[in-house]
Design brief:
The chain has helices at residues 18-31, 40-46, 52-63, 73-93, 103-112, 125-135, 161-170, 184-192, 223-230, and strands at residues 5-8, 116-120, 146-148, 177-181, 196-200, 215-217. The chain has 239 residues and is of the alpha/beta class. The longest helix is centred in the middle third of the chain and has 21 residues, at 73-93. The protein is globular and about 55 Å long. The structure holds xylulose-1,5-bisphosphate and magnesium ion. Xylulose-1,5-bisphosphate binds at residues 9-12, 18, 21, 50-52, 121-124, 127, 157, 183, 186.
């Protein structure tokens, strides 16, 4: 039995989102009067930790040692992350973060060909909804069998949890799936779940270690090349 399901990472894969996340974090810091401002170099280092709330805690512990955390630090982080998500989803809905080349065409062609589609991401559910309502269509969820995101699993990437959660809901074995990812943490997660994984590169992750990937591509602008590489039989014309 060939490939029956495609599992998509979100940030860096469906869209080049991370600079948008970075700007949203900075807007949230400013909104609550924090002097923190993450430039691209700092954010590049902070991206080694997946999950926005975990990333804020990493920044405080390793980059902001003189910061005196408020009594209920967990609530502080959760509320700050909520403000950031509001800014990020607003940027997405204003059309500032389009889907990457070939992604929309691949999703519609694969769905029409009867393949199962799923999402396996670390980002918050609201971010996925904003991105796909804007980039695909209002009821995008009808095309996806499972949407694994954010805090739905106990351990975020590079742990395999979110990919295992999605495969269980797909009712598929790893051999029946392929994953699309952009980062070392994402690749480690999907490989730990036993899934053949294709990488598309972006500014923040192009220097990562992609050992074990089935292929590393700039992007999916040459969709026939990708479908041929991945063994998908899809009616995708020259994009
Ligand atoms: C990348 C992440 C996320 C985003 C920020 O997720 O690690 O944390 O950087 O989104 P993906 P949140 O698995 O899609 O590459 O602030 O909502 O976490
Ligand atoms: Mg990613």
């Amino acid at each position: 039995m060939g490939i029956q399901a495609i599992i998509f990472d979100v940030d860096g894969t469906l869209a080049d989102t991370e600079d948008g996340h970075r700007q949203a974090f900075n807007k949230a810091f400013a909104e609550i009067g924090l002097k923190w401002q993450w430039d691209r170099d700092v954010y590049d280092q902070l991206l080694s930790v997946t999950g926005g709330k975990e990333r804020i805690k990493y920044f405080v512990s390793d980059f902001q040692r003189d910061f005196v955390p408020p009594p209920d630090f967990e609530t502080f982080v959760r509320d700050l992350h909520g403000i950031k998500t509001r800014h990020y989803t607003q940027m997405v809905r204003e059309g500032q973060i389009p889907l990457r080349p070939g992604i929309r065409q691949l999703i519609y062609a694969a769905h029409q060909a009867g393949l199962q589609l799923a999402i396996a991401t670390t980002t918050a559910p609201d971010n996925v909804a904003a991105l796909l309502e804007t980039g695909l269509e209002k009821d995008w969820q009808k095309m996806f069998v499972a949407v694994g995101c954010g805090d739905m699993v106990p351990n975020k990437k590079p742990a395999p949890d979110v990919y295992l959660w999605v495969m269980e809901r797909l009712g598929r074995t790893p051999a029946e799936c392929i994953a699309l990812e952009d980062s070392e943490n994402g690749l480690r997660s999907s490989l730990a779940a036993g899934i053949k994984t294709f990488i598309t590169l972006n500014h923040f992750t192009r220097r990562h270690d992609f050992s074990g990937a089935a292929a590393v591509l700039e992007d999916l602008s040459d969709l026939p090349h990708f479908t041929q590489l991945s063994g998908l039989t899809l009616p995708v014309g020259e994009s």
